[in-house]
Amino acid sequence: MPRPKKNRALESVGSVYGSFAKSFNQLLSLLVPGDWSRATLHDIVNTEDRQDELIKTYIDSEIAKMNTTGVTAALIAGVISGSFSWYNIDNTTWPTKAAWYSGLVLSVASVANSAIHTAAFLRMKCDRHVAKRFKTTLARGQDLEGLWKPHALIPYVLGGPTLHLKLAVLAFLLGLFYELWQAANANLSWRNDDLKIAFIVTLVGAFVVVNYVFSVRTLVHHSIHTKKEKKKKEEGPSV
Predict the structure, then answer these.
(1) Any idea what DSSP says for residue 89?
(2) Which sign, positive or negative, has the C-alpha torsion 92, 93, 97, 99?
(3) What is the pLDDT of residue 238?
(4) Cα(66)–Cα(43) distance, rounded to whole angstroms?
(5) DSSP string covering 36-81, please?
(6) pLDDT tens digits, 180-220
(7) Which residues, 6+ apart, have CB-to-CB distance to 198 below 8 Å?
(8) Which of 41, 97, 125, 193 measures 20 to 30 Å from 21, CA to CA?
């Protein structure tokens, strides 16, 4: 039988939507490593070899990560708070102040979330049936094949403190760059020292952003690609 012709308009819409979804997921992974976290959890809760040991190792790593995130967020909060003691803070524009206040709120929220997550994982680690509690907390149940499926929002929940921390840093930098270029716009002549400062700091900021994106894509996306290739080899060639 001849195959029915597909609607080209629907194919185009589906292709555009797929490209948009892929780009959005890649952008989101710069803040929250979604696929990586879910793939790791899926492997841990469904393994039969040394599962208890793997779960305790994962819990320890999460506790260490939350401790590091909490300390870093507290330092960022101190940096942002210190910026309000600058000599020219009274002349600072309102968008800059709004961005810095937002960064302060986000960094404090990161500290609080890190403490909550740490306490939760410590209680989970002390449970007699740590593996069962780990599965029922982070997974939504078992499928028809008996495999545990991690919650779809688990990467967002576990990455919440880190997400708040990154947004706090971003808010502070956006406010800083806005203030620098606001001062440079008063006189766009190269003789203006404010323009030179804004230009040089922007170059440094661009260098930092490129290095950050490169680091995240190298660590996170390489791990995702490796897991997908491993899964394809285990499933074997498609017929």
Answers:
(1) G
(2) negative
(3) 46
(4) 22
(5) HHHHHHHHHHH--SSHHHHHHHHHHHHHHHHHHHHHHHHHHHHHHH
(6) 898 888 777 777 788 898 899 999 999 998 998 888 777 76
(7) 177, 180, 181, 183, 184
(8) 41
Q: Which amino acid is at 13?
A: V
62: its two tokens: 């999460």
Output the six-digit token pair for 193: 């020292």
3-state SS, residue 56: helix
Q: Distance from first CA to last CA of the chain, Å, rounded? A: 21
3-class secondary structure, 94: helix
Six-digit token string for 218 = 């190298």
> Which two structure tokens, joined as six digits, stand for 179?
């203030």
pLDDT band, very low/low/confident/very high, at 22 (cuts 50, 70, 90): low
Token pair, residue 190, equals 């190269």
Tell me how far apart the alpha carbons of residues 44 and 53 are, in angstroms, rounded to a whole number.
10
Tokens matching residue 148: 């545990």
**Token pair of 74 as six digits:** 């507290």
